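#help-structures

NK: newbie question. if I give both the sequence and a SMILES, will the prediction place the ligand too? trying with fe (ii) ion
OV: yes, paste both and it writes out the complex. here, I ran yours:
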Amino acid sequence: MRILQLSDPHLLADPAGLCRGRPPLELFQHALTSALQQLAEAGTPPDQLLLSGDLCHDETWGGYARLRDLLAADPALPPVAALPGNHEHLLRLRAALGREVLLAPARCCLGQGPGSWRLLLLDSHCPGQVGGRLGSAQLAWLERELVAAERQGVWVLLAVHHPPGPIGDALLDSIALADGDALLALVAERPVARGLVFGHVHQHWQGWLPGPAGRPLLGCPSTLCPFPAVQPCPLGRADDPGGRLLELGETGEIRHRLLRWDLPRVFSLPTLP
Ligand SMILES: [Fe+2]
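OV: that's the protein plus ligand as structure tokens.
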């Protein structure tokens, strides 16, 4: 089972608008095309697309409608799951995309029976705040899901927009997941949780979950723009947009591959004053 993770597109209502000096819609379209082409050429097409938050920077209906239309334009696209980020308007997100996209908090079943996987989508959005929080009700739901997965003999991958712990960047660590410690404590006691992926940090980052060894904790680059990298990029391309392929095995192992692509040769530059 393969998941393509793309993150932090920061779309706008204006299809020609710029965010951080770049055209988010054009770069998200380019990301989708580039990643799918790379995976097709490698013979590893994804079974699932995961968008890990900050979908719409200006939190407008128009931004979500662009995303909906872009996803609908490719009938060959695998099913899509998405998390809200801090840059989000939950009612507009749900109204525009709720029929086509599985939205957090939710359980995404990848296959059936023992050895299959559940992708648990967590919602860390806090209205009006840059940092995130899951809250006690969602943590209790997560614990029930992990217990049920153990009973059923299925593996779990967790996805949340905000990193659950510090990555080593003072600014980003101050706007992470407020109850990340509670999440990590829960996961440490549940070996059925095989890994956790997040967005928010706009860079490749790799660590490990506490508890049983060998369970990756992975930050994903943005399709729009990078933030200063804490760790060296394994591909030496920290300034390029990117995403990640996650390959989930029947014995609970997660293999992952960082994806990078060039910026389009020509994209709309901001108009100088
Ligand atoms: Fe972001």
